[in-house]
Amino acid sequence: MTSRDLDTPYRGGFVGGEHRFALTVYFEDTDTAGIVYYANYLKFMERARSDMLRAAGIDQRAAKEAGEGVYAVAEVNIRYLRPAKLGEDLLVLSTVEQVRAASVLIHQRVMRGDQTLADARVTAAFLDPSDRPKRQPKPWVETFKAISEGDSLNA
């Protein structure tokens, strides 16, 4: 491994239509008992969703700067099934379940090995610069549909 490899941030990627994002539980993620604080699962999922968009070739920053719009979480339904603990390696699995004109529904699971720790469905709405729902860019809709059909992306 070269120093250049060590200087590059970790990136997740797609296996078929599933985005995989690995992470480690650090002290800052836990409560005094060494168990991941419940709200941090949402942070893990947010990081994985952002990485999923990057891996799919969707440039949110460019869209925002061009005045096209941005994604915002409109709804989250989450079930906490098992606790994660300090030092554990986790995997966030993300799949696109449904694509609508102005939103996308993403199923996310935080895993420890083959155990599901948290299971969520997240609706991300595409908003215009005035924070009103807006149709997603057509190429993005096509990308999400390809992902939801299980097509492998290597962007």
TrEMBL record:
Region of interest (Disordered), ranges: 129-155
Keywords of this entry: Hydrolase
Similarity field: Belongs to the 4-hydroxybenzoyl-CoA thioesterase family.
Keyword rRNA-binding: no
NCBIfam families according to UniProt: YbgC/FadM family acyl-CoA thioesterase
Lineage: Bacteria, Pseudomonadati, Pseudomonadota, Alphaproteobacteria, Sphingomonadales
Descriptive protein name: Acyl-CoA thioesterase
Keyword Hydrolase found: yes
Pfam annotation, one family: 4HBT_2
